[in-house]
């Protein structure tokens, strides 16, 4: 057994017999001891300081009186130990200070500036007394009570000299024996800190208590294997007990760190989460939600996440105005209210308490310090039982943690699954309420949102029916959709609804209709500012096409700005950028004013003044920044205000009580709606299952995949449309699509068919590869309509 293994074994034996925390702490427990030692620390520190000057040699032999550390004191002890080539005194001092909350809180304090009165009194003293008085003033500054210090600290400031802590760690961590002292001290410190915060509310008494978390987190070795087993999990549990104001202060402080420091902290907590996930077998009976270390590390990671947001490129000003009229709610009661119970869940979207405390939203951040993707933990996502996690999320019990409360750690696939459970439960809830109403009031049973439409009048039939439902009872829009095409026999198990949406989108977003415009360069749609359609149609159409990212940001409450023009209108964005960078005289050379022109639906020019009497106000080098901002404001917000408000109103009708806004960022909503743009058919081949006698090694199956891989992009999309009802890959890519290829008889002239509801392709066993290609292309090119097989 080597030295390290022996030390760990000894530590485990020690911990087994040590009483680290009272199960029923008395009024005068750990915190009281901490506060008493803190108040007494000033006097002992001062006497220690004087003794050091009078009897240096005796102190050098015995450092038992060192109860807290400064950078200078560490270097002094280090030099003495280096001379004797014996570092055991320094190891003992580090063990004593770093295992004591009061010692660590007092350590590495920033020097406090003297008041005017102190400076005058110092100047008036004799030279003989100058040195002693300066020491006394310094001692009172260092050992003053936490309340006095905090009053003079900014919300993002602590009394620790962070740079000094970093220099000390850099000197000491290169020595393996000294590093072990930090590890062992943290093991002893963490349970006591957890006890302080849980039972004694110590932070509210002395906010300098936060210092110890700042100091420990500066240790660059926290993510190393030695810490992962005991020390770091216990420390994370202690940190997770910090009250909300302390968490916010830490986030504000860390937001001033650079990307490198933020990434180091992220990697520390991610290492612990991954280590615990991999070393345990989590399943539906052994939930990862019940692992204290994983939960605590995730809560700590949330602090770093908001520090990453705060430290990034923030835009807290350009916010969309709330709807003047509230979103119409169901006239019906909820199931709980019908049964005489209180409503369990508050209406409206959930907001994270730390987000509220900090006064920012994730959507305010245009560019974080490090990419949001680095906060996602894939091993955790793989073992998370989302149905259970969603239940914990909705019930909001204190003893069950839901990872949906920390959506930054979840990937889009997992979040989508959470949203799926939420939608299904809402549908089932509306269905139960409908059944209950039918029993109590004798109403006709109608648990589904039924639409019967004609193919050649699909827009008129659908929008008229939906508009009536929206006016009568908007809650019906949350019911499960059931579509029936007039004159067709198809039963809607999902596939009919898919085709319905596809046809509606093709019709509504047809430029000839005039509701939207299409940019051939960007392949994106935008609202037609001069559309004649009424607002009700924008309210009810939903989203199912590629919009610029600014649309999703606007739906999440942020206005479009100049930088959003880059993808919404790249030509205009480039022109305005050139205007901003122009080095000559803008007024004389360009001769433009604060009046701009647009074309309406029929190509007629329309003039708009960005400022009052804009045609008389020239754009100059001095006001061009204002011109660019006003131009972008008009193009992205004012010109389409009426259309977008109606569009957003429809969006909120069905998502107002959904966790959509809480879980997803704008770019993730685009992925959720439009699917993955990357069509990886190799991934689809890997996950496809076979039935009816086919398997992966069947001749026709091999020929089928060879044929499909040889198709062009458009033909591949047609195949997806034919087989699944949509030409897009789901969130997570085609590998997440569960497709089945089933045998549909021997060689024949019949075309392949499909069950789009279940993503099943029925494929006859064609005799040749050429015949397979010809039959398949004909099927996917001319497929439309539903029938009974």
Q: Compute the average pLDDT.
A: 80
In the residues, how many domains can be counted? 5
For the terminal residues, how far apart are their CA atoms? 73 Å
Name the strands of the widest sheet in spatial order. Answer: 9-10-12-11
Under the CATH scheme, the architecture of the largest domain is 2-Layer Sandwich
Q: Which term fits the overall shape?
A: globular
Q: What is the radius of gyration?
A: 34 Å
**In terms of structural class, how would the helical and strand content be classed?**
mainly alpha
Could you name the CATH class of the largest domain?
Alpha Beta
Beta content comes to: 5-15%
The total strand number stands at 12
Which ranges are low-confidence, i.e. pLDDT below 50, for 5 or more consecutive residues? 14-33, 39-60, 133-151, 330-346, 785-789
> What is the third-level CATH name, the topology of the largest domain?
Hect, E3 ligase catalytic domain
CATH superfamily of the largest domain: Hect, E3 ligase catalytic domain
Count, helices? 38
Largest sheet: 4 strands, mixed
Helical amount: 40-55%
